[in-house]
Amino acid sequence: MTDSNHRHSEYPIDPLFLNRWAPRAFDGQPMPKADFLTILDAAHWAPSSGNGQPWRFVYALRGTDGFDDAVGLLMDGNQVWAGNASALVFVISHAKRKSRDGTLVDNATHAFDSGAAWMAAALQAKLMGYETHGMAGIHKDRIAEHYGIPADYAVNMAFVVGKYGHKETLPKPLREREVQSTRKALAEVAFEGSFTAD
């Protein structure tokens, strides 16, 4: 059993998994580009079906011309706080793959594989002293149009990276939610030899 970051695991996992969380309070400072690219480098080493590596990352760094435009592609509730992060990343995946005969066919695992890449980014960021927060609240059609993303690619999610700030900078309703979340008991999600629906 591991205790860390106001969390408690049932088995002795590495504290990294408990220390990673998704805050909304960021300090509003830029980050070195080399640090950010290190995080993306870790992400692109994630496992994928057939080593297809379907993930693609479109990013904007605080202090560059594209950052405010990128923040504007988030839903309003996320714009309120995500604009204080150091970097914003849209995770896109190729929904097709080449078959053995060279034709494009559906890639059933493109989003799953890209999720593995996002987790790798989140863990690498934490190891470097940064925080991340993933978001589904994005305008997918507008993102695709803004960045010229072809129809056979899927916009999956976005995440921000930055140093933790002060929760007092958040609007009151978000300030109250700025706590480390818990998880369901392992027995509620892991079943030996059978399946139990919620």
Automatic annotation (TrEMBL):
The keyword Heme does not apply. Residues 19-60, 76-163 form the Nitroreductase domain. This is Nitroreductase. InterPro entries: Nitroreductase, Nitroreductase-like. Keywords: Oxidoreductase. GO terms for molecular function: oxidoreductase activity. CDD domains: TdsD-like. The keyword Amino-acid biosynthesis does not apply. Gene3D superfamilies: NADH Oxidase. Belongs to the nitroreductase family. Pfam families: Nitroreductase.
